[in-house]
Amino acid sequence: MAGYMTKLNGHVYEGGHAAGEALHNGEFVQLNASGEVVKTAAAKDMVFRIAEKTALWGMPAVVLNVTAVGGDEVFFVEAEWDVYSHTMYDETKYTTEPGTLVRMHRPLVGEQLIMTVEQALYDTLTEGQTVKPAAGGSVA
């Protein structure tokens, strides 16, 4: 997966929690009982409207407008690339390893993000449809 915030109301990022599992940019995450960051374990009540179906780094992607935040504490991973790694920048291969601090943002109403999705899911989505974060860090 890959993705990033495209419109922000506030540039507030969490960065004080460590990954409890390998995480990628463009995934929805939550804190577990130990305070570690993990992929969403179940459907959440945050709501997005699909603004556009597109591609990102050659993979199917959707542009999502945040329409409701809900009560669930859901974050979107947008980790920074290591500029000293001397490797080609490719966000689809960037992973935040377990135990590493995670840069994540809690989306707010009026913000927008882009994220890659599996082809099978992409084929079922339509522009204007609403979706929510789902188990595994994607949307449904």
Descriptive notes:
This protein has 140 residues and is mainly β. It has one domain. 4% of the residues lie in helices and 34% in strands. It contains 1 helix and 11 strands, in the order ββββββββββαβ. It has one helix spanning 119-124; strands spanning 3-7, 23-24, 28-31, 37-39, 47-56, 59-68, 75-77, 95-96, 104-105, 112-116, 130-131. The strands form 3 sheets. Strands 1-10-6-5-11 form a 5-stranded antiparallel beta sheet, with no helix packed on it. The chain has a 4-stranded antiparallel beta sheet with strand order 4-3-7-9, with no helix packed on it. The protein is globular and about 35 Å long.
Number of helices: 1
What coarse outline follows from CA principal-axis ratios? globular
Secondary structure class reads: mainly beta
Give the strand line-up of the largest sheet.
1-10-6-5-11
Strand content: 25-35%
List how many beta strands DSSP finds: 11
Number of domains: 1
Protein traits:
140 residues, 4% helix, 4-stranded antiparallel beta sheet, mainly beta, 1 helix
Which helices and strands appear, and what pairs or packs with what?
Elements: E1 3-7, E2 23-24, E3 28-31, E4 37-39, E5 47-56, E6 59-68, E7 75-77, E8 95-96, E9 104-105, E10 112-116, H1 119-124, E11 130-131
Antiparallel strand pairs: 1-10, 2-8, 3-4, 3-7, 5-6, 5-11, 6-10, 7-9
